[in-house]
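Hallway conversation turned thread

IA: we were arguing at lunch whether anyone had actually written out Olfactory receptor end to end. Turns out nobody had. So, for the record, here is the sequence (308 residues) and right after it the structure tokens. Reply here if something looks off.
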Amino acid sequence: MHQENDTMVTKFVLLGLSCSPELQPVFFLLFFLLYLITILGNFLIMATTASDPRLQTPLYLFLRNLSFLDFCYISVTAPKMLAGFLLPPQTISYGGCVAQIFFFHFSGGTEIFLLTVMAYDRYVAIFHPLRYVTVMSRGVCVGLETASWVGGFIHSIVQVAIILQLPFCGPNKLDNFYCDVPQVVKLACTNTFTAELLMVSNSGLVTLLCFVVLLISYSVLLAKLRTRSSEGWSKALSTCASHITVVTLTFGPCIYIYAHPFCTFPMDKAVSVIYTIIAPMLNPVIYTLRNKDMKSAMGKLWTQTWHC
């Protein structure tokens, strides 16, 4: 133990997406463009839902919160990845790695809980439209949002606790573009069976359970809607389609990454790109593409900005 303490790892080397020097400039331009689109898209949603009086309903309050989380989520990983394309290989201190894990799981965990809350909001809006304002009052919405943030914080603290209990005495190379528990745990110079089980139960199992609950709830919801008129079915399906798409895009890759801790697959890095970069970029597009109120409010905001 004394020898391990003398050779403790103080920094990790992030190997990034590719070791090919020819691909680094291409990757930098591509992911810088994706990052810029994500930032602008989510800020546009936050500005639109905050400025338009018609968009002060619970759905758009949750959507504004989700856009802020997407902005935080991608900002935890993308800047370090972009720097790695310009100056490979990129290094990160042990403390910086732990901090990245904390904020990555804090924003990601909160988003998962918030998506679950948004499903409940859609259920009330479709089946209890006359009681919607009463059931989803301002106080209830704030309470649900607060519970999502608290749940994300607890989830993140557990992830950090898993890392802090492990000794690292080499090697220190992470085959990824950011620090995350699955890759970091594998570098520990001790038996990590218990740590990996904790990771599965806290990340993989929780995400899988939330996903199953959402699938069951939407299946029941759509089954009940079939008895309604074709117009009501079409409107309700349009209301839920965006949320179902975002849920699938967010939960699917997370379940894949955190449900198999004891082995590594070639697709792991590509799947990581999907849920850390692609999903936060597509969420604003998915939620605004089929939403007439959002498109109308964005047009109004653009007109006001242009005149100013």
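OS: looked through it. The first helix runs from residue 2 to 6.
IA: good, adding that to the notes. The beta strands are 11-14, 90-93, 173-174.
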